[in-house]
Amino acid sequence: MQAASLADIRKELKLRSPKELNELCLALARFKKENKELLTYLLYEASNEAGYIESVKSEIDRQFDEISSRRYYIVKKNVRKILRGVKKYIRYSKKKPTEVELLLHFSGRLKELNPPISRNTTLLNLYNRQIAAIKKIIPTLHEDLQYDYQMELENL
Hints:
mainly alpha, 8 helices, 79% helix, globular
């Protein structure tokens, strides 16, 4: 079975009743955890972006605190897993300030990591890529936010 294009799906959804749309959303939520997380964000978190950012930051902190290995192989796997989660949360929000704030928090925690990332090329490159991504996004933001985030970036 080939998936329909987004335009076709949009046209078909316009023809459906609110009850049918409700059933379709619930069916989507049943099949994949990521769909359920997105619906949760859209229904409960989207109206309070600051609260969403704080909850994601606390999740990042919790995951970094659980990294206890001295072996870089295990640390790299865990850091990549955390970054995948951060990128997923950024995708849900689709807001540039949220993206910058979460990436800054992730990068700050990564820099503080023990064992130090400066001894591992892979982790250092991952850190540098996140810093480059932040630098690329900052000019697209409002001037006040640019200044604030630029100051945070310089602290890293």
